[in-house]
Amino acid sequence: MAFNKTSPEHGSVPKRAALYLRVSTGRQAAGDVSLPSQRDLNTRYCEAQGWSVVGEFVEPGASATDDRRPVFQRMLEEARSPDRRFDVICVHSFSRFYRNGAEMELTIRQLRKHGVEVVSVTQPTGSDPAQELMRQIIGVFDEYTSRENGKNVSRAMRESAKQGFWNGATPPLGYRIVEAERRGTKIKKKLEIDPVNAELVRLIFKLYLQGDGGTGPLGVKGVTVWLNDHGYRTRKGATFGVGPVHGILTNRCYATGKWPYGVRSSRTGERHDPSNIVEIDVPTIISLDLFEQVQARLARNNPKVTPPRVVNGPTLLAGLAVCATCGFGMTRSGTTRRNRRYSYYSCAGCKLKGQSVCKGRHVPMEKLDKLVIEGVADQLLVPHRVEQILEGLIDRASAKDRAVTERQHQLEAEFDTLKSKLNRLYSAIEDGIIDLDEELKQRIARLKTQRDITQASLTQIASNSANLEAITPQKIAAFTTLMRDRLRTGDFRARKDWLGSVIRRIEVDDQLVTLIGSKQVLAGALTGQNPTGAPVRGFVRKWRTRQDSNL
């Protein structure tokens, strides 16, 4: 491109120019708007105008849709300073400066107030009204072009995800990106299991659910500390943090083999419409059953559900022991006599609200802990006692076998019918026999909801049957022996977790301590499939699910 040289007016000082050079992507850097090309054109333009180039601001790989560009911000800050070293900002085109019409115009006007002009090499510039109108039109057109390009790129990436390809983001821990196929110059990628990091993912789930063999199950922070203490590091060589470990424990793709693409906007962080989310198939690393057990424990230990003092506190019966008189929890208290510390379980109702609410009671902590552990070990965890407790449950279940079997057959037939209806509708839509209008969408949604409910009912029936069928005298004997040993000789964390999973409430009276649990929970613990139910906030007394009585 040739430029006509102009000479500065006689006696005037030549203007000082700064070059602003920007590309958005590596592909642009290799094309006709590469940084060297922009530098050459801008420099020759300044020379033709008789301006001296005093510096340049280079911004590689930054979008111009907003001002979140470090070099751009540094240039604006210098332009507004009293001792600025340039009078003109020279750009290849206004799209290099901004791709937002309103923001560009506002920035140019602010710079003019500080005596700095923005000049485009390839597009008309100046203060004439016609030239300003043309610049504004160019800015709006550049913004429109940028948004259309963004839509096309997003559409192409979503289509690539629908075909099962990975779009280049950092994969979850345990996976690595591999080349799947080539389409011209484009390389399509997929995820495969990284053997080393996959073992680390399995270890994290095991530590949270079972511990390392010498301890009980660890919390999220406990898992993080254990990994860092034993020399485990992230892929980048950094130590683990609580947030990333929690993200691994809640990432469903490890068990489901489905990675959701397009959940949030990469720029704003806002959630996209669920109908636009695409699930990419990836190999599974852990079993779905293990993942669900971890989610159940995370839900129980959620600080919004269970107070942190119950989960992580040093008190064995915290959250379980309550005063038999007023129903308030028994909390830890203590006193010191002759340089010796004595710890007690004390009624929180009396401590917080006075003896008019409850006369209160104080039980030595060591005494109540020992009483509960020995009582559970000697009176509950013995084979004949467990058989006696579960006998009625098993008998009732056996008596209902015929009804359950009939119900299962009905659900299976209903499931097959619903599935067949959906398949026929899908085929009719694909063949063009019917159009997918709003009424048909609602009908499909209703059928899918009925199908999912039926499938969940079948799963629940199968799970309940498996639980009861798995209870045998041999399994009861092995379970009680193991649990007695853990309660008496296991570490504090393991004892606390096991008591909390089986016992729901311990009522402490002056002469009697009552342990309250559930036969279903005991059966679930025995078979390794302990039902958790919906989380209930531990902070709220007299909580009710539907708020339907005694408000």
UniProtKB/TrEMBL annotation:
Active site: 24 (o-(5'-phospho-dna)-serine intermediate)
Classification via InterPro entries: DNA_bind_recomb_sf, DNA_bind_recombinase_dom, Recombinase_CS, Resolv_N, Resolvase-like_N_sf, SSR_resolvase, Zn_ribbon_recom_dom
Alphabetical list of SUPFAM superfamilies matching this protein: Resolvase-like (SSF53041)
Keywords for the protein's UniProt record, in alphabetical order: DNA integration, DNA recombination, DNA-binding
Domain Resolvase/invertase-type recombinase catalytic: 16-168
Lineage top rank: taxon: Bacteria
Domain Recombinase: 172-304
Transmembrane stretches, start-end: none
Name this protein carries in UniProt: Recombinase family protein
